[in-house]
Amino acid sequence: MAANPNPIKVVPPPWTVHYEAYVGAFYVSAKSGLPRDIAYEPLEASSAKTTEAGVWKGGMVMIQLLRYTSTPVGPYDEMTLLPGNFDVPGGHGRKYWNLPKHIARFKYIGDFSSPPFTVQLFPEEAGIETPFFTASLQHFAVWTPSFPFSSNVMRWLGVPNSLVQPPLPEGEPKELLCGTDAWYKVTASIYSPKAKIVWMDLKQHGKDGQSDNKNWWPGIKRWHVGLWLQNTQMYLGDPEVLSV
Length: 244
Description:
- This protein is mainly β.
- It is built from four helices and eleven strands, in the order βααββαββββαββββ.
- Strands 1, 2, 3, 4, 5, 6, 7, 8, 9, 10 and 11 form an eleven-stranded antiparallel beta sheet that branches.
- β2 (56-70) and β3 form a beta hairpin.
- The chain starts with 14 loop residues before the first strand and ends with a strand.
- The relative contact order is 0.22.
- Residues 1-5 have low confidence and may be disordered.
């Protein structure tokens, strides 16, 4: 068998990573229903393991656009979605932390480190020219002060800095879409010496202006206040294995 020309570097936790990020959040009611086509990739949506997460309760939905400048496996860009709360308490991201990561193509219009700019995300497959997610970031005002940000602040506000993740189904290729069998509790320690308030515009490109998801998540407004985290450091340790 020929050697893999792009072998996957295996690096178990703990990880310390450095990155720049834009974070936006909005509140949704459980009555609105969970848009499964947004919250899940097809692999997870079709898996019985996904139902183990329980009933969706709405709550705070969070979007993060990250540019990792230093990680144990090198630099890369990432979008993460925290789709609210469920009634069950309590690549590398998949294997070690039950994070359902998938590869996507990123297209930038402008400079990630200098708003305003727009980012569009596409499926990994070539030939698909309609993005499944678009966000535009711009300064909140002509001048806004910067301030330090820590994940400790979230705990003081009653927002936990840990995630409880259900087991993941296995897909192909197994090296990238590995499956897991246990529930993990993942805790992150985050610090940025320079955070700023920004605007996040979620108007979608290529969407019908009359459709329910013209602003990506059905029923939400177009503009949202977000945070721009610069020179950020995050520590991810070993996950806690739970019995659920």
